[in-house]
Amino acid sequence: MSVEEERGDPASRDRQPAEAGLQVSRLSTGYRRRQICHDITLPHFFPGEVHSLVGPNAAGKSTLMRALAGLQRASGSVRVAGRELVGQSLDQWAQRVTYMPQSLPQSVALNVLESVIGALRASPSDRLALLGRRALERRAVEVLERVGIVELALESLQHLSGGQRQLVSLAQVLSREPRVLLLDEPTSALDLRYQLKVMRLVRAQARACNMVVLMVVHDLAIAARWSDGIVMLSRGEVIAQGPPREAITPATLASVYGVRARVDHGAQGDLQLRIDDVLDEGETR
Ligand SMILES: Nc1ncnc2c1ncn2[C@@H]1O[C@H](COP(=O)(O)OP(=O)(O)OP(=O)(O)O)[C@@H](O)[C@H]1O
Q1: Helix (H) or strand (E) holding 201
Q2: Distance from residue 184's CA to the centre of ligand 1 (Å)
Q3: What is the pTM of this model?
Q4: How far is CA 130 from the centre of its chain?
Q5: How many Cβ atoms are within 10 Å of 135's Cβ, its own excluded?
Q6: Ligand 1 atom 18: the closest Cα is on which residue?
Q7: Is the ipTM of this complex over 0.90?
């Protein structure tokens, strides 16, 4: 498949309701003694689109993701399909937003198939949650096939490698077909082949199920290749946002990551990045 075919296009924004997708404005969140994310307003993310949240370590990416999943107290506004979620119960959030965290506690004594069936049962969509046992099983097997791990179906979660567990988590969250899917470093434990397979799958699912995907990604080449838009975060603030070629530039890399870099965006979204040097404190702004 060519990169051009892989990119595909989400449904035209003009044909979608003005309230569709995810709208985040003036969101602040943090921990008891420390605010981490300050007054964050994101671009309007429409159904079918994939966006990447990038930025240095400790920038606040995971904190922001947890707040968007309703797992952390926040002020401001998070609207999904026009519905305000800030101040709502966790159940209300979970009906619209599914979150795959960075660390994957999978020590329960279930096999892979059972764990995906469990995720389907907990699905926000009645269409999925009310399926009978047989139909749930068929559907779970189909998701495992799509992710490429059907041969692990009867393995215990406890016996899987880190990368295999990451793929199972992905199968669980994809199976739920949420309106908004948040993925925190979805390819961090995966080898090169699975990185490509997973990114291809995530984008195809976003387009097919008309869901918004927002993922934390450290590898800027992966983010540029697979995302419709980039949000670059530093010290809990949005420093750059927009299509990859507008957000990932030598200037933003200098200011956010403190490096001197050469950036070459190819016509098909591919990104060549060469880091030449680490800048001194005074050179980064
Ligand atoms: N449970 C917590 N309690 C208090 N502070 C926390 C907690 N979790 C994270 N922090 C702090 O919040 C800041 C942002 O952390 P966060 O994990 O959101 O960053 P990140 O951008 O996801 O980093 P990384 O790329 O290293 O995963 C850090 O300074 C961190 O120490």
Answers
A1: helix 192-209
A2: 13
A3: 0.92
A4: 27
A5: 12
A6: 60
A7: yes
